[in-house]
Amino acid sequence: MQKKITGSFLKYIGVWSLLICLIAVIMWFYYYSTISANSFWLDQYKLIEFSREILDGELRLVGMRTSRLNFNFPMIHYLLTPLIAITASPWAIYVSAAVAYMLGILIMGLTLLKHRPFSELLIFVSLSLTHVWSLYYSSFPWPPNYIPLFLSLFFICFFKYLKNSKNVWFFHAASVFLNIIFQLHTMSVVLIIGFVSALIILGKLPRYRHWFFQVWIQLILVCPWIIYHIFFIDWANEPKYHSSLFKDFLSPAEALINYLSGFGLTREHTLYLGYGTNTFPYENFWFNWLSVGGVLILLILLWTLKQIHSLQKGRVISWKVIHLHLLPYSQEEKDFNKSYPIALYCMFMPTLFYIFSGIVMFPHYFQFLTPLLFLMVAVLPGQLESKTFRKIAYYGVILFIINQGSFSYWRSWEEYNSPYLDDIGYTKVLAYKIAKECRDKPQIRFLSRREIKNADEMFHYRFDPQFESLNRTGTEDCHSIMVFQNKLLLQSPIVSWYLQQLEPLKKMEVYNNQIWITGKQ
């Protein structure tokens, strides 16, 4: 008996070690290529500066403004403050988002390895390592991009509570993590609805004293934001907030399909993206390829919802007995293998409210579905009794993983080969080239298909300290520098014609980018 236990433990440790190594190698390849190739915008600047203010003793009651001009919650700044205390390097902040995503995969994977079939672990990890938007958003800091880690922590606590509802402190921990997720992006409020629905349907509502205790905890966590809006805000000078409710009834469905498939990332310029990858000359191919994947995952998702719905038919709440379901532990479901998929179903279903809301939405609004989506898809094969249907489900999931992974890792390689020199990881490369060639500090302009833009304040926030730290050996009076990707010459005939009219003093090339010293032209 002792040998059997020891053998199982060693097998468990071996599988877990192999999984960690596999995730580390794959993630290293992806992030090594893509973190450097990310932009640095005002939001990233505010993440750093607002966290610095907290370290200086200026406690923040609200976060940065949203695109609709209202204030975000300050949670993200307090979460990043320990890191900022160690280093305020923008590079470190970018790496933190990737580390948070990887930790989420690992701790969720450990839970699945212990409590669920091995096939679910494989599907979950494979989807986590390939899903286009999830990987992209995990490569740079932004409040919603830290949601996957806290959602994984939420699920771990929630599932432990489902297995043994006597451990009521897991209910409280899950609720706190859900509050953090809500503060990172308010669109995740539907998860709170799903959580409460799951507790009611599964008969897992705790005793009333725990209800009231948790309500107080929730109020304490959001009270800084409330206090600011009641006592400190100057409503007379506040800009008029604008709502996007009932403005575009196609937008939520389009954003959801975009999030599921990733086809939006094949477009170099989109709203709230700045720029994606310059996929020229394969843009149409990748757009069509990922669109096929979007249809496939949508069918798999609907199939999953149908299968799980059949499990909970007997637990649908009747309005005649609604008061019974609100009683603590009323008709409690104690079979974890049944309560687990039903809980996932309940967590996801409120998301469909957005489809009918008419809210103008974008893919990042659905960041709260990572890793919920992966967990749901992973349970589908196990819910099918027919071997034929089970094989179809596995083949469908594998095809989607290939669909997502092919673009995600092609994209990472392409960004490594042809980055933009104003990206977070290549600013120093440009600074070195200018310091080597120029004795003055020239004006820097970036050329794209859309425009010629001067280097802005956010660029100089990173560039100037790096440039000043270098040994400047240049002898040229450069005056002006123009920077653009090599592929732009083939991509845009108009830009190509414009460049032919220029007479640069010197042409240089680095990372498939042209750096032209244009002088006083």
Quick rundown:
With 521 residues, the chain is mainly alpha-helical. It is 59% helix and 5% strand.
- Shape from CA axes? globular
Q: Count the DSSP helices.
A: 20
String of helices and strands: HHHHHHHHHHHHHHHHHEEHEHHEE
Helix/strand class: mainly alpha
End-to-end Cα distance, whole Å, is 84 Å
* Strand elements, count: 5
- Largest sheet geometry: 5 strands, mixed
Oligomer: single chain
Mean pLDDT: 89
Q: In which order are the strands of the major sheet placed?
A: 2-1-3-5-4
Radius of gyration: 26 Å
Q: Regions with pLDDT < 50 over 5+ consecutive residues? A: none
Residues in helices, as a percent range = 55-70%
Write structural notes for this entry:
A five-stranded mixed beta sheet has the order 2-1-3-5-4, with no helix packed on it. 59% of the residues lie in helices and 5% in strands. It has two domains: 9-417, no CATH class; 427-517, no CATH class. It has helices at 2-34, 42-55, 75-86, 90-115, 118-128, 132-137, 147-163, 168-184, 189-201, 208-232, 251-261, 283-311, 322-325, 336-348, 372-379, 387-417, 427-437, 457-468, 488-491, 493-501; strands at 443-447, 452-454, 480-485, 506-510, 513-517. The protein has 521 residues and is mostly helical. β4 and β5 form a beta hairpin. α4 runs antiparallel to α5 (118-128). The longest helix has 33 residues, at 2-34.
